[in-house]
Amino acid sequence: MSEHILVERQGAAQIIRMNRGDKKNALTRAMYAAMAAALDASNDDPEIRVNVIMGVPGAFSAGNDIADFMVVATGGDGGTEVFDFLRSMATLKKPLISGVDGVAVGVGTTIQFHCDLSFATPRTVFHTPFTDLGIIPEAGSTLIGPALLGRQTAFAMLALGEPFPAERALQAGLIYKVVSEDALEAEVLSAAARIAEKPPTALATARRLMAGDTDKLVARITEEGEHFRQLLTSDEAKQAFMSFMSRKK
Ligand code: COA
What we know:
Elements: E1 5-10, E2 13-18, H1 29-43, E3 50-54, E4 59-61, H2 66-73, H3 81-90, E5 96-100, E6 103-105, H4 107-110, E7 117-120, E8 125-127, H5 141-149, H6 151-159, E9 164-165, H7 166-172, E10 177-178, H8 181-197, H9 200-211, H10 214-232, H11 235-245
Helix pairs in contact: 1-3, 2-11, 3-10, 5-6, 5-10
Bound molecules: coenzyme A (COA).
Coenzyme A (COA) binds next to helix 2 and strand 6.
């Protein structure tokens, strides 16, 4: 378990909270591993009827830790934790809902493609600057994105890296609802409680049918991952990571 991922229960809801606020919830391998373990554990636990993922005030997640990207870019081992987490989301049997406030970069945005309901505050901005970093969209977003948002909006978000403030993300269909900072947590937990009251088999079946073909999704995550890893070692990517790590504030 990672000290930066807090997992707790509220009734039948498992709450996974990213808690590395000083780094805007940039995700490390240990954090991915802890989140994957929590999600996987929910599949066979009848006491858990819904998963909730949240960050800290002002930061849902700044995406993958760039220092970890740099390890792979310079020939090191990236481990399987990121893939494990993405596969856990793609194969999850229980509903997943998110509460997003503030920064939602990279995987901080693409997590929403795996959520059944996402709530975000007005100050939230969803941003996927993958291509600017010399890498490609991940988490199956090249498959789900065009289907969910339409091809052109998906292209603007995922390939052009246009930031999507919460209201625009709502119009685009990336998220379910915009709620104030003060109300976010209560709103998310109340949605979780509503989900938890539903007959679980009916809900799980409806959800599975809506989520589509899991094998196809995992295959796409794998394919994206192969390109992603290769591109991480490109000069463009290394330059982008170095310029972030050495930037002056
Ligand atoms: N990886 C590693 N560290 C990160 C990080 C990331 N993805 N995102 C933020 N941090 C760190 C910063 O280096 C900084 O650390 P420091 O205080 O030790 O210098 C701290 O988190 C706070 O970030 P800061 O940039 O000061 O906050 P901000 O509010 O000005 O900007 C972001 C927030 C998210 C816009 C900015 O940090 C950013 O662009 N991060 C990179 C996002 C990214 O490209 N992720 C990969 C996507 S694929």
